[in-house]
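Students often ask why inverse folding is considered easier than folding. One informal answer: many sequences map to the same fold, so there is more than one right answer. In these notes we will look at a single instance of the problem. The structure comes first.
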């Protein structure tokens, strides 16, 4: 197994670990860039028990080109997914493969994880979700999840969702001049981007923790006070935080010291 595939299997199993409550059954998917191709979970496989045999290698440029297609029928999508698969496993890549192609092409992204965590689904499905995505409660949330989260209004899974993600992420990059670390999909779930598998897991777990903080704050009836824009920028641009972020990309095990 190549180191990239090994890391992707490790990430997938961690994202599917029942103790994290990030995805059940065949929910969620993960991917990793590997030169001119990328690996993504095959449709119908469970993250929790994923092995190399549940991954499909995809032709990167061919998948990326399909993002421009205004609309395709379900049958055309199935054909397109088959046509961009490399090898003869016969497995169908996840329907979210187009979204992974777009995200893996962004600067600094080597791995992508997509999950449906219960606490975040509660937040992401509220009318306040787009406002909450911009807020940060504590410093490690800034370090692991970025200074704000991209919010994507609900879109049909598959190509329409990939195009909606592309539009919201491009707007974020124009505004922030950097690649985001986390993306909320309204009424759907979370996407986490990272240079390494560890960075994706750290960002995912920290997003879920922040979600629980919000929910517990709401339940207590007390008003939470988020960090100010100045406090967020200070954490985000501190040299020692950059050092910490670099360490977090490499460390296995518990990501946060
Ligand atoms: Zn999903």
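Output (designed amino acids):
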């Amino acid at each position: 197994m190549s180191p990239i595939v090994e890391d992707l299997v490790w990430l997938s199993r961690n994202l599917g670990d029942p103790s994290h409550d990030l995805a059940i059954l065949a929910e969620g998917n993960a991917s990793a860039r590997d030169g001119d191709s990328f690996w993504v979970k095959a449709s119908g496989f469970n993250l929790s028990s994923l092995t190399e045999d549940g991954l499909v290698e995809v032709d990167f440029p061919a998948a990326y080109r399909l993002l421009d297609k205004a609309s395709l029928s379900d049958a055309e999508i199935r054909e397109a997914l088959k046509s961009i698969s490399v090898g003869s496993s016969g497995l169908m890549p996840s329907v979210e493969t187009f979204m992974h192609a777009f995200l893996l092409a962004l600067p600094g992204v080597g791995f992508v994880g997509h999950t449906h965590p219960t606490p975040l689904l509660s937040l992401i499905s509220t009318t306040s979700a787009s406002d909450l995505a911009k807020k940060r409660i504590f410093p490690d949330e800034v370090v692991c999840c970025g200074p704000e989260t991209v919010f994507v209004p609900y879109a049909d899974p598959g190509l329409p969702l990939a195009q909606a993600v592309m539009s919201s992420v491009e707007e974020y990059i124009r505004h922030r001049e950097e690649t985001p670390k986390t993306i909320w999909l309204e009424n759907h779930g979370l996407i986490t981007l990272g240079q390494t598998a560890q960075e994706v897991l750290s960002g995912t777990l920290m997003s879920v923790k922040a979600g629980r903080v919000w929910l517990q704050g709401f339940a207590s009836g007390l008003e939470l006070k988020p960090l100010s824009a100045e406090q967020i920028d200070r954490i985000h641009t501190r040299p020692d935080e950059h050092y910490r972020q670099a360490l977090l990309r490499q460390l296995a095990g518990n990501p946060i010291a």
